[in-house]
Amino acid sequence: MSVDILELIKTRRSIRKYKTAPVSEEEINKILEAGRWAPSADNSQPWRFIVLRSQEVRKKLADTLTWGRFLSQAPMGIAVVVNPRASNHPVEDGAAATQNMLLEAHFRHRHRSPGRNSPEDKERTRRADLHR
Questions:
Q1: What is the rounded CA–CA span in Å between residue 33 and residue 128?
Q2: Is residue 95 part of a domain?
Q3: pLDDT (average), residues 50-63
Q4: Among 16, 8, 28, 29, which Cα is nearest to 99's?
Q5: Tens digits of residue pLDDT in 75-97
Q6: Angle between helix 25-36 and helix 90-110 axes, rounded to 10 deg
Q7: Which of 13, 76, 109, 112 is the most buried (most CB within 10 A)?
Q8: CATH classification at residue 90
Q9: CA distances from 58 to 28, 71, 77, 101 (A)
Q10: Domain that holds residue 64
């Protein structure tokens, strides 16, 4: 299956409406693997990923966040925790791992959802491109 990376980047969106279907272990493992392959300063790999399966845990965590209250509505979540003493660039390292996981999740969503690339989805992408 050929993947156009630029198209994947251009079509990824942060939409806060989630399907209720559970995320399979295979999908979670692929998403985590994408995070592990992210570049990091001096290859320090200063991150740990915590899979948030419990609705109760996601709700409690969401209640403590200024941005991210939507976490309680998602079927699962992944917390990216970075040790700032293990890297000269902990923020960038965590962001790179997060972006890899977001792109992998987007790729998996696009290739399992027949409704993706609908006229409405294409229009949403077109409108987003106009604002760049």
A1: 29
A2: yes
A3: 95
A4: 8
A5: 999 999 999 999 999 999 999 99
A6: 140
A7: 76
A8: 3.40.109.10
A9: 16, 6, 7, 18
A10: 16-105
Q: How confident is the model at residue 108 (pLDDT cuts 50, 70, 90)?
A: confident
Contact 38, 93 (CB under 8 A): yes
Q: Within 13 Å and on the Cβ side, how many CA atoms surround 117?
A: 10
Note the pLDDT of residue 103: 95
Q: Assess if residue 131 is contained within a domain.
A: no
Output helix, strand, coil percentages for the chain, rounded to the nearest 5: 55, 10, 40
d(CA 46, CA 64): 24
How many other CB atoms are found less than 10 A from the CB of residue 90?
18
Give the C-alpha separation, 37 to 34, whole Å. 5
Q: Please check whether residue 71 lies inside any domain of the structure.
A: yes
Based on the structure, what is the number of domains in the chain?
1
* Residue 77, beta-bridge partner list: 52
Q: Which two tokens stand for residue 92?
A: 């960038």
